[in-house]
Amino acid sequence: MLGLGREAVIEFARKNGYVMVRGWKPGENGYLLAEKPRGQVPPLALGQGAVVRMEKKGVVYGMAVIYKELLRKTNLCHFAFQDDVIARTLRDEERVQCLLPAVIRDVNNQKAAPLGSGIIVDLSKGGLRLVARSPMHIEPGGELSVSFHPGGIGFIDRQKIRLKRVDGSGGRFEYAAQFMEMDKKNTKLMDEYFAFCKAWAL
C-alpha cells in the first residue's frame, strides 16, 4: 500500500505538507516512520493527530496517525497508527469529461510567463487531466498552479496543483494533477460547475 521511499501527503492543523515514507507496519501496534514534514505546515507536537495519504495506481490509501517522537539517531518521525488503513479509488470521485482551456504556471513564480497551456479534458474535485500540443518541461511531483473558467460560471485563478503523471507521444502531451489546498471560493465554483454538468446531462 504505502511505498517506501515515496512521498505522501500529511495533513494536520488544517494544513497540508509532505513526508517521505521510510518505514511502516500496519496492525494494532502499527507504526509509520517518515522524514520531517515539508511545506506550509507548523511543527509537529507530541501526541498530535494527523492524516497521511498516498496515491498508488489510482487508489488513495489514508490513515489516521499520532505523532509519538523524533528518533534522534535517524532524524525520522515516529507515528503510531490510530485507525486501520482506508483505501479509496480515485475513479469513485465525481468527475466529468470537458473541454476547458487552462494555463499552467510555476507556483513559486506566478509573475513569470506561463509554463504552457492546454485543454482540461477530465475534471474531478480531486484533480484534472490536461492535454497540450507542446511539452511544458515539468516533472511529476512538482507544484504548479492552474487557471481556468469552469463552464463560464466563474474563474479559478492560480489554483495550486501537484503534478502526478506526464505522458507524451505523437505531438500530444498529457498531464494529470491533483488539487492542493483549495479555498472556499474555488470549492464553491467547482460545486456549482458539477451541479451544472449534472443538470445539463439530464
Please tell me about this protein's structure.
- This protein has a 6-stranded antiparallel β-barrel with strand order 1-2-3-6-5-4.
- With 202 residues, the chain is mainly β.
- It has 2 domains: 7-90; 93-201, predicted glycosyltransferase like domains (Thrombin, subunit H, Beta Barrel), CATH 2.40.10.220.
- The protein is elongated and about 50 Å long.
- Helices cover 9% and strands 53% of the residues.
Please supply descriptive tags for the structure shown above:
single chain; 202 residues; mainly beta; Thrombin, subunit H; 2 domains; six-stranded antiparallel barrel; 1 helix; 13 strands
List the helices and strands and how they pair.
Blueprint: E1 7-12, E2 15-25, E3 31-34, E4 49-56, E5 59-71, E6 76-81, E7 86-89, E8 95-106, E9 116-124, E10 127-132, E11 143-148, E12 156-169, E13 172-179, H1 184-201
Antiparallel strand pairs: 1-2, 1-4, 2-3, 3-6, 4-5, 5-6, 5-7, 8-9, 8-11, 9-10, 10-13, 11-12, 12-13
